[in-house]
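Before a colleague's protein record goes any further, I have to sign it off. My question to you is simply how this chain folds and whether the C-alpha cells agree. I do not need a full report, just your reasoning and any doubts. This is what I was given:
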Amino acid sequence: MTPQATVYVSSTCPYCTMMTNYLDEQKIPYETVNVSVDQEAGKRLVKTTGQMGVPQTKLNDVWILGFDPEGVQKALRGEAQ
C-alpha cells in the first residue's frame, strides 16, 4: 500500500519544513495544506485534532503532531501513536 500523507503547515514554521523534508527523504508522497493561507482548513484541523500547533501530519489515518520521525515510522508500520 502506498502511504498517503497530508501535512498541515504554516508559512513561518521551521518544523513544518523539517517534516516535509523528512517525508521527501523517505519518498513518502504528501499534500501540503498551509493554514496561514487557508484559515478554514486551520479551523477544521483544530476541530478534528483539538491541536492548534503545526506541523500536523495525517499519515495512513494516523495523526502525528510536530516533527516526529519516529511517529512517521510507526504510522508506516500501522502502529497507533
The chain has a mean pLDDT of 94.
